[in-house]
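Entry under discussion copied across for reference:
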Amino acid sequence: MKRFGTHHLTACAVYATMVYAVTLISVKIPAPASGQGYIHLGDAFIYAAAAMLSYYAVFSAVIGSILADLTLGAPVYMPATAVIKALMVVVFVLIRGRDKNAGAVRLIAAMSAGALLMAAGYTLYEFALVRLGGMMSAEAAKSYLLVILLFNAIQGAISVPLGYVIIRAVNIVARRYRREREGD
């Protein structure tokens, strides 16, 4: 990995802002542990950040996502969000590899693994909050677990194709920009 420079810091800040802004555009769902959860498209921008910044995208993912949790009134999710979003970036980079022009299959596999991690992580976290907080019986919590898993899976299923389109579009623009700079 290259040395962390000003351009990395700037790119991390831009991606954190995009993750935050897109996460704010969300569909709210009732959640017993916090009063509300939400489905959003911010994960697609986390994948884009990971594709462009490699492991540095952890900063963008965590900062943008936990600020969105705070803004949207779900601070109870902030600890889980920090861990889950950081792990999503790590898993994405490990599967995609160092090749920024990875093929479609590897790119989709990396995002899908991140989406599965996100769905499982938030589902288990929500289940733990509900059970440890004594908010519902074991039977009711099991049924609730399936509902939460469904909502998290929907978010992941939407974020993967959107992330793919964003990554490909950014790659095209970056290639054109490099060609123009080399032509000067």
DSSP finds six helices and two strands in the chain. The domain at 6-183 is CATH 1.10.1760.20 (Arp2/3 complex 21 kDa subunit ARPC3). The beta strands are 26-29, 37-40. Helices lie at 6-24, 42-53, 57-71, 78-96, 104-132, 138-183.
